[in-house]
Amino acid sequence: MPRVLLIVGGGVAAYKSLELVRLMRKDGMEVRAILTEGGAHFVTPLSLASLTENPVGGDLFDLTAEQEMGHIVQSRWADLIVVAPATADLMAKAANGLANDLGSTTLLATDTPVLMAPAMNVRMWAHPATQRNLTQLKADGVSFVGPDEGEMACGEFGAGRLAEPPVILEAIRARIARDDSLKGVRVLVTAGPTEEPLDPVRFLSNRSSGKQGYAIAAALERCGAEVTLVSGPTALPAPAGVTRVQVGTADEMLAACHSALPVQVAIMTAAVADWRPAEAAPEKLKDKATRTAIELVANPDILAELSEAGPDRPKLVIGFAAETENLVDHARAKLTKKGCDWIVANDVGGTGVMGGDANTVTVLDAGGEDAWPTLSKDEVAERLVERIAVTLG
Q1: How many whole angstroms separate alpha carbon 273 and alpha carbon 260?
Q2: For the chain (length 393 residues), average pLDDT per consecutive 10?
């Protein structure tokens, strides 16, 4: 019987936690609950205890429970910890390692998977601090469901509504059902841009954020893979459990990739600069001339090198193709030219892809092509990892 520890945050949406408990119990899950001080303003301990058929935690300094270190015991007992609603305050505490009540202390003391269902005012959700905390929690391995868009209790409209209990239940099922399908599989992932120096202060680069590669690395790790992430310069935190190697140039990225071999799978999402200055100026170039010429030379083709036959060639080499026109034709040509096994092609001709949170991709291999609908980059990562697990079988 799956065991779920539910932490109920303080917000109007806390009343939906009762319906969520009912659905989990009906689905055959054993449920225990921690009710935060804020949550207790909206639902009662008696209601949660009646539905879970277990005592409800609430006081970090409960002499009976904490005599046996209840916050640690609870965190180890569960197969999954669900925070619903996950308020801005609870997210901030978890992202920054704060532990001043039973809920936040339990989150800090656990190595159990965590699923959060955020619920808050639209302005609070959109605030840079909350978005920073969201990014950090995802990097720490926390999964999310929602929030939905709609009318708030405060009368405003936008993103911030708690996902409906049936949707949260599906997310719980999916999280609990995850297995170690790639346990022990060594994987190399590249991500982000490269920076090719023009002089000590300038460089050639591109708009890649690295989000897709980082999402893939995190999804692989959650399936048990041993992941080395070779990353160009990004503002993203390293995913939990992933070994990140930070590089700057294409030459550095190639060297780091060779150092990571042998691996069973290589996924090349990085937007490597095709060219670099033939020679970087030793001093800052002056702006006296209205026009100047800079000689460029080709960078190493990392995808092609890793795809070459040899004892260290990965069993599965996957390239990415960011195109602005003739997506499938150009991707098919790249698949043939590079010698890799799959190409994941995406159209970056519009706005919002490079640096955004969504992607529309087509996966090509020797057998044909598979066009996916527009998904979040996290969902693209999950789907790609599932495909890899099936292929490695």
Answers
A1: 21
A2: 92 94 93 94 94 86 52 78 96 94 92 93 93 91 86 72 90 78 94 92 88 92 91 87 92 97 97 89 76 85 95 96 86 94 86 73 94 91 95 91
Q: What is the DSSP string of 218-275?
A: HHHHHTT-EEEEEE-S-SPPPPTT-EEEE--SHHHHHHHHHHH---SEEEE--B--SE
The yes-or-no answer to whether 3-177 and 186-392 have a common fold is yes
Question: Which of 362, 333, 329 minimizes the C-alpha distance to 345?
Answer: 362
Tokens of 360: 């529309």
- Strand, coil or helix: what is 170? helix
Residue 19 tokens, joined: 């319906």
The single residue of 154, 223, 257, 340 carrying the catalytic annotation is 154
pTM confidence score: 0.62
State in Å, rounded, how far the first CA of the chain is from the last one.
Answer: 27
Query: Is the peptide bond preceding residue 314 cis, with omega within 30 degrees of 0?
Result: no
Looking only at the bridges linking them, the beta strands covering 265-268 and 275-277 are unpaired
Q: Which fold has domain 186-392?
A: Rossmann fold (3.40.50)
Q: Are 30 and 2 a contacting pair, CB within 8 Å?
A: yes
Backbone angles phi, psi at 319, to 5 degrees: -105, 165
The answer to whether residue 223 is catalytic is: no
pLDDT (0 to 100) of residue 294: 84
**Cβ atoms < 10 Å from Cβ of 235:** 8
- Domain spans of the chain, in order of start: 3-177, 186-392
Quick one: CATH architecture of 3-177? 3-Layer(aba) Sandwich (3.40)
Rounded to an integer, what distance in angstroms lies between the CA atom of residue 9 and that of residue 43?
10
CA–CA dist 125, 115 (Å, integer): 17
Residues 3 and 1: their CA atoms lie apart, in Å, by 6
Task: Sort 384 into a burial class: Cβ within 10 Å, 0-12 / 13-18 / 19+.
Answer: buried
* Closest of 322, 290, 192 to residue 249, by C-alpha: 192
Task: Output phi, psi for 361, to 5 deg.
Answer: -125, 160
Cβ(91)–Cβ(130) under 8 Å?
A: yes
